[in-house]
């Protein structure tokens, strides 16, 4: 009897692993016509502090940013040393601000550009006020999709910023307003990992948290290929990030899953994602 149960279990494991190993030729989001032919999965769940973040990211086609942005009120600089491997996460730091110089921030970006995508980022917000945690598509200021947590206003509004997470398509015509909504959180994003996802297709950008659609924008949908970027920063703007942060802020990213290589025609083995 025990042997029969064991062989049934072994058969189950073999079937499960063969299903998992099956090649996916087209990754399909049911609500998007066509699909995606390429996947890049970056799993930080097994990393340890002291590991080499730059080399892990580089092996997945992602680079760590190193440049300043002068726009204020307080300028910021994306410094490579603020991106590090933590305990089961990529840790993106905004350093406690000492009152002078630029705000030491962090950013990573895909090396390649692509048009249309479904990108899922599992992260835990820092909980330190005064920081923007961005997960976004970017070619330029007029080809940009943002899904942003503002740590000062996750759960409570400030005088100038409503509470919630921001879904935005920047204006595709220079000088025109963005299309955006602020979605109230149903949980405290600093207390656990959640999946923040943007689906970008020809007709809409759709924003999800933990697989639940939270916003869908059909105006100002970008039309050109660009990079995907993740960052953590502050500029001390009371109408946006607030801050600068008074303590070190760490945004923990557990995984990044990028589906790209859009095709209007589904072919081969289809995998629902
Ligand atoms: C403040 O921090 C900057 C780095 O952001 C550093 O260059 C500077 O020396 C610090 N100033 C003081 C007074 O600690
Ligand atoms: C913030 O918004 C208020 C009200 O619109 C405005 O008066 C103020 O100049 C803004 N501050 C900054 C730094 O942009």
TrEMBL record:
<dbReference type="InterPro" id="IPR013320">
    <property type="entry name" value="ConA-like_dom_sf"/>
</dbReference>
<dbReference type="GO" id="GO:0004553">
    <property type="term" value="F:hydrolase activity, hydrolyzing O-glycosyl compounds"/>
</dbReference>
<dbReference type="GO" id="GO:0005975">
    <property type="term" value="P:carbohydrate metabolic process"/>
</dbReference>
<dbReference type="Pfam" id="PF00722">
    <property type="entry name" value="Glyco_hydro_16"/>
</dbReference>
<keyword id="KW-0732">Signal</keyword>
<protein>
    <submittedName>
        <fullName>Concanavalin A-like lectin/glucanase</fullName>
    </submittedName>
</protein>
<dbReference type="InterPro" id="IPR000757">
    <property type="entry name" value="Beta-glucanase-like"/>
</dbReference>
<feature type="domain" description="GH16">
    <location>
        <begin position="57"/>
        <end position="267"/>
    </location>
</feature>
<feature type="signal peptide">
    <location>
        <begin position="1"/>
        <end position="21"/>
    </location>
</feature>
């Amino acid at each position: 009897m025990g042997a029969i149960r064991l062989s049934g279990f072994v058969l189950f494991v073999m079937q499960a692993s063969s299903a998992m190993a099956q090649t996916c030729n087209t990754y399909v989001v049911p609500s998007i016509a066509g699909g995606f032919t390429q996947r890049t999965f970056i799993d930080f769940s097994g990393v340890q502090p002291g590991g080499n973040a730059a080399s892990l990211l580089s092996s997945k086609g992602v680079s760590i940013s190193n440049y300043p942005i002068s726009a204020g009120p307080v300028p910021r600089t994306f410094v490579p040393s603020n991106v590090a491997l933590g305990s089961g996460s990529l840790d993106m730091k905004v350093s406690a601000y000492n009152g002078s110089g630029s705000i030491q921030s962090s950013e990573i970006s895909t090396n390649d550009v692509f048009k249309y995508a479904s990108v899922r980022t599992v992260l835990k917000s820092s909980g330190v006020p005064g920081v923007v945690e961005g997960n976004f598509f970017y070619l330029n200021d007029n080809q940009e999709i943002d899904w942003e947590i503002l740590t000062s206003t996750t759960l409570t509004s400030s005088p100038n910023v409503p509470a919630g997470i921001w879904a935005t398509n920047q204006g595709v015509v220079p000088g025109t307003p963005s299309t955006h909504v602020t979605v109230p959180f149903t949980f405290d994003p600093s207390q656990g990992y959640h999946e923040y996802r943007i689906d970008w297709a020809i007709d809409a950008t759709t924003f999800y948290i933990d697989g639940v659609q939270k916003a869908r924008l059909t105006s100002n949908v970008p039309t050109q290929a660009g990079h995907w970027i993740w960052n953590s920063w502050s500029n001390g703007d009371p109408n946006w990030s607030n801050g600068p942060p008074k303590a070190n802020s760490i945004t923990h990213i557990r995984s990044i899953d990028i589906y790209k290589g859009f095709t209007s025609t589904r072919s081969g083995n289809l995998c629902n994602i």
